[in-house]
Amino acid sequence: MELLKFTVLSKYPRMKHFISTRKGGVSKMPFGELNLALYVGDDKKNVLSNRKMLANGMRLKPSEFVYLKQTNNCRIKHVLTKHRGRGARKMASAIGGFDAMITDSPETCLVVQVADCVPVLLFDPKKEVIAAIHAGWKGTMKEISKKTVDKMKREFSCNPADILAGIGPSIGPCCFEVKENVFHIANIIYSAYEEVVIKRRNKTFVDLWQANKIQLVRAGLLESNIEISSVCTTCNTDRFYSVRKEKDTGRFVAGIVLKR
Question: At 73, phi and psi to the nearest 5?
């Protein structure tokens, strides 16, 4: 099993984080190998085996994980200890209608499931608050990353200058070609940032990594505290799932947890 980490988040012993890949699980194609989603049509026994394998690899319990029913909106859930285990064994118990989570509850592992959408992990080492964000193009255009930081400020009195961020593998600006409706929205929101909306060979591409980074900076994070993995899932389907390239496929996850 291959797990990735962000350098900016890796020096804090009170917190664990990870990004899974598709390698090392028991799922069969088109979900091979380490599919961690219960809603894509994979055999449930395989998914639960993969989730147990991931938990063991991180020295966590499957019952400590919290999963969402992601809907590509801009709602952020304040997760409490009582939510621990939601969605871990069955999709029906996942927290519905949210695409980001924040918590200060130890041993509560926040995970988002992705296969081209942008996973963003946040950590305030001073307040000991964590967040996991699923930023699809719709959530990105609605500024879900910025709004998650705003919620951390409101509910935990976090100082954005203390917050560290990792922007994980997703469809990159090399592959995220958009149609006129998405171009129009992105061009309005990010008109001052030429690195977000890119014209190339009479086609339009959007850089979701830069869009989320800009949101975080707007929210008050220091640029030096933001790390972008710069790995395109569509270009690297040997390591990651990509809905755009593969259509029916699995999901990898990005997770973060506070230790006691």
Answer: -115, -155
End-to-end CA distance of the chain: 25
Count CB atoms within 10 A of the CB of residue 76. 21
Phi, psi at residue 145, to the nearest 5°? -65, -45
200 secondary structure, DSSP code: E
What does the radius of gyration of the chain's CA atoms come to, in whole angstroms?
17
Q: Please state, as a whole number, how many other Cβ atoms lie within 10 Å of the Cβ of residue 259.
A: 13
For 67, which DSSP code? -
Structure tokens at 193: 């940032």
Strand blocks (E) in 51-163 = 65-66, 68-69, 76-78, 95-96, 100-103, 109-114, 118-124, 129-135
- Taking the mean position of all CA atoms in its chain, how far away is CA 207? 16
pLDDT in tens, 73-99: 899 999 999 999 999 999 999 999 999
The amino acid at 29: M
Summarize pLDDT for 85-143 with one digit per residue, the tens: 999 999 999 999 999 999 999 999 999 999 999 999 999 999 999 999 999 999 999 99
Cα(109)–Cα(255) distance, integer angstroms: 6
